[in-house]
């Protein structure tokens, strides 16, 4: 009976991982479509060619890379049985995620201060695309923050330990995807102006 239960748990684990990867691939395709539309729109005569992205986007990039690092360290701490370090790294990851959001909104305010608006009669197609790409990413990041909160909650409930890390691994995979997605977007916006 234990063998059957173990086999069922493995099947459920594989099914959950497949569902997560299906969602990740769907999200990646959405952003591939948006960035393809951006490339096609660059041929428009009203496309801004001298527009510079704020440096705060780069700071937010460093912050989100650091958040992936702290999440990896939290997993290693949990597997090593060091709950205190795991807690610190998980909370650090959440703080870095919130700091990323702060930098994003600061970047928006810098763009507006330069006289570029995202919507309305004073907007351009260029800034509207940036707005859509970044806000779509922030929507996924909001889900990622909820995932981090669930990971922290389950950590405090002691649901993760060596050999019982499926939930943590699923959450971490989603978080790392959100991070990689931002890296793709920031490199895309910097190199395909």
UniProtKB/TrEMBL annotation:
Family annotation (Pfam families): COX3
Gene3D superfamilies: Cytochrome c oxidase, subunit III, four-helix bundle
Topological relation to the membrane, as annotated: Multi-pass membrane protein
Domain of life of the organism encoding this protein: Bacteria
Keyword check for Cell membrane: yes
Keywords attached to this entry: Cell membrane, Membrane, Transmembrane, Transmembrane helix
Signal peptide: none
Stretches that traverse the bilayer: 20-41, 53-74, 86-108, 128-153, 174-192
Subcellular localization(s) per the UniProt record: Cell membrane
Domain spans labelled Heme-copper oxidase subunit III family profile: 1-193
Family designation: Belongs to the cytochrome c oxidase subunit 3 family.
Protein name: Cytochrome c oxidase subunit 3
Originating organism: Gramella jeungdoensis
